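Sample log: Deoxyguanosinetriphosphate triphosphohydrolase-like protein.
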Amino acid sequence: MTIDRNALGFGNGAPAIYAADPWTSRGRLFPEATSPTRSEFQRDRDRIVHTTAFRRLKHKTQVFIGPDGDHYRTRLTHTIEVAQVARALARALRLDEDLAEGIALVHDFGHTPFGHTGEDALDEMLKPYGGFDHNAQSLRIVTKLERRYADFDGINLSWEALEGLVKHNGPLLTPQGEGTRGPVPQPILDYCAVHDLELASFASLEAQVAAIADDIAYNTHDIDDGLRSGYLTFEMLEEIPFLAGLMAEVSARYPGLETTRFANEIQRRQITRMVEDVIGVAQTRLKEIAPQSADDVRGAGQVIATFSEAMATTDRQIKKMLFSRIYRHPDIMRIREGAATIVKDLFTAYMNDPKEMQSHYWVDHITGLSEAAKARHVGDYLAGMTDSYAVNAHRRLFDQTPDLR
């Protein structure tokens, strides 16, 4: 993919005309005085970093459960890597880097303990009450569950940050009002009833680069963790032409390179090629669309920051390999089964006796709730747990706790 290097935003001054402008933000649900030292999107990013939800990410599973080793990614290290890639893309495309970084930092707030396993288990338990969706849970956290301010619940992010959080993977509604990926989660609909995030439009380009940065980061680091664990081998990587080419390139330049350095050289090339591919595609589409504002990006009717057709094929090949070789490996499936049991057992225990949540806030605020509201309250409590907290809570309540090793 060809890149116009003269158009890159490295030292080229002002943001592009299609970038989100923090000085003309659509504001916050609860109006606040502006800061004399920080833009609105800087304030968003800073608030996100100081949340309890952000700190909890360090003890939440990405793919491998914590006891597997200190060098495997957690939700926090994954989030930091996504933010780094998002910021690099934003700078190259002359976007607002603070908004792109903030959306990347907040995008996984709603994940449960034990990764997607925990989400699937909690969704099953909450099915009679509307189910569970980690993106909707992220919105609940930043608009309702964080308790840091005297004037409001949540952290009162800007409209642009919330829009990016909710729509970074694309519109949730068609122009006709139908769900693009099934029914829109109720928490998102409830919030939009009082603060419309325009679910039928695309998000800002800052949100789009955060979304594609997520794909780039986890494709790369899941390969790294897979090699470290032994579930992946270099021979398996050679089955994907793109990766085989990178391996041949490294081998030719560094014959006999030690395994760890060899893997790292492959991965940094992988990130570079994918980032450059996205930049090239985005530049081409920006020239075609010629947006004159961030709203023109939202109304473009297509994703602008995405992979080329060739790289999208590679992306699918990598995901297929990771799915078959790691995510569905018998060892991982056994651990996932145990993790799901922990989440389901805890949900049932707390529904039967809310006092077992052992927190004055969570116990006191469940009094008088309807059955559905009670289930959502318990779901909020469970979703906020770290892996270790969930395991310890299960050990306290049950005679036998699954071994997650």
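Observation: The chain has a mean pLDDT of 93.
Observation: The first helix runs from residue 40 to 49.
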